[in-house]
Amino acid sequence: MNQTIVEALSVARVLTHTPCPCCGRELNAAVDVEVGALCEPHAGDLTICIACNAILEFGPELELAPAKLEQLDEIDRVRLTEAIEDLTQARRAVERQSGEL
């Protein structure tokens, strides 16, 4: 598991208040999984819902919509799968640390 993702999730600050279109969970922070640091999303960026692991894409007004996975190449699909696995492990670690599990 990527320890920097755990650290970034534990200190995440509010960046946007956008509901996940798949589960309705309010998403309020973004972490760049490549570097494990908070980031500001831009139109076209992909994100993963921390609650349901849906792969989402930011629109022009930073609204979220389900990503069109058929437009991704195989390398991006593998990277997203790895990011989901890291996110799930990091979320569980943060929940354990805060006593939520």
Descriptive report:
The protein is an alpha+beta fold. Helix content is 33%, strand content 18%. It has helices at 3-10, 74-98, and strands spanning 18-19, 26-27, 31-32, 37-38, 46-48, 55-58, 64-66. Helix 1 packs across helix 2 (74-98). The longest helix is centred in the last third of the chain and has 25 residues, at 74-98. It starts with a helix and ends with a helix.
For the structure shown, list the relevant keywords.
18% strand; two-stranded antiparallel ribbon; alpha+beta; 101 residues; 2 helices; globular; 3-stranded antiparallel sheet; 33% helix
Query: pLDDT average, as an integer?
Result: 75
Query: Per DSSP, what share of the residues sits in E-state strands of 2 or more residues?
Result: 15-25%
Helix content: 25-40%
Compute the number of strand runs.
Answer: 7
The outline comes out as globular
DSSP helix count? Answer: 2
Give the oligomeric state of the chains in this entry, treating copies of one chain as homo and distinct chains as hetero. Answer: single chain
Major sheet, described briefly?
Answer: 3 strands, antiparallel
Structural class estimated from helices and strands: alpha+beta
**Ends distance:** 18 Å
Question: Which stretches are low in confidence, meaning pLDDT under 50 for 5 or more residues running?
Answer: 8-14
Rg over C-alpha atoms, rounded to the nearest angstrom: 13 Å
Instruction: Please give the order of strands in the largest beta sheet.
Output: 5-6-7
- Helix and strand string, N-terminal first? HEEEEEEEH
